[in-house]
Amino acid sequence: MNNKQNEIKSRTCLHLIIRSFSIIFFLKTFAMTSIETLSSVSQQLNIYVGIILFILGIIGCLWNILIFRHRSFRISSCCTYMLIGSMASLIQLFFGLLVRILNEGFQIDWTLTNIAWCKIRNYTTQCASLTALSCLVWTAMDRFFSTCRQIKWRYLNSVYFAKQVCLLTLIFWMLISIPTIIYTKPMETTKACTISSSIWSGISIYFFTLFCYGIFPWFFMSLFGLFALKNLRQYHRQRVNPLPIVVVTRMARLDHQLTSMLFLQIIYSIISSIPYCVEDIYSNLTQTTMKTLYRQAQENLAHQIIRLAFYLNYISLFYVNYLSSPIFRRISKKALRNLFKRKNDVSRDITVINHQTYSKRKNLKISTIYGTTHM
Fold this sequence. Notes:
The chain is mostly helical. The chain has a single domain (45-320), classed as Rhopdopsin 7-helix transmembrane proteins. The chain is built from eleven helices and four strands. A two-stranded antiparallel sheet has the order 1-2. Strands 3-4 form a two-stranded antiparallel sheet. A hairpin with a 3-residue loop joins strand 3 (358-360) and strand 4 (364-366). The N and C termini lie far apart (102 Å).
């Protein structure tokens, strides 16, 4: 009996051991499969989503450039900021998004083997991205200046001033980003083109990423956008001369479209930038933490999604304006139709982009938002 009991116990223990090993093997296999699946999803996202974003971004930026370089728009300071911002966004898409598609999607990474390309790519993307975001802020400030009654503020609402601001902005970011081109190089430990100096890395994360990419753009856009809307509504209420109901309706529509364009840009900026800042800071704080392969795969997937979403900042400008404003759509179509003509009349509706008073004899007549605007 004792032998039989011992035999039964031995068989039971053997079955338990086999079952335990089977469960462990299954869990390891499942974990490896999950890791491979997550890695595959990350790669496919960069290929398919990245290519779609790249194509949409190129179309939007080129369309903006074609529209805002037109002679009828060169008298608009707001369009000057949009033109420079679109050019910077185009550079960012080529040096940033396209290279990311090649690196993460097709596993073609020249930054690991070519230190010059590593430095140039990081420096160029930083200068271009910060210039493009700055132009969005200058656009919101320009809209505020255009609604002010004081001459000292209206003086800042000029094409000459806009060109000087854009030039100084580019020079400022090029100078302040010089340490990036000095300290950036391929790192053997991380197998990535990154900053080698811990001090400059901390400055990049907690100054550039947190403030320049995250807080400053949407905060100042919101602030000056609200100031501009406040000025417009105060003017409408304080107007002495009674206006026909048709004109009041048109002014209200312009006000509504300006509000939609501005706050949609702010929403896109928040959606694109805040996750990018949080993820970058999280990666820096947990870089010395021991992580499992499965957790690394999860974080890499989140990293790829957030990085792709960040490029909405440089893609969305044209589409936000086009979808939210019928006036912008009409201007875009007319400008494209008359792009290569010497003489044309774009529209008085250009005033929704820049509230200034200009006159060009016969071909172009623009009235401010304070006056009558033909819809």
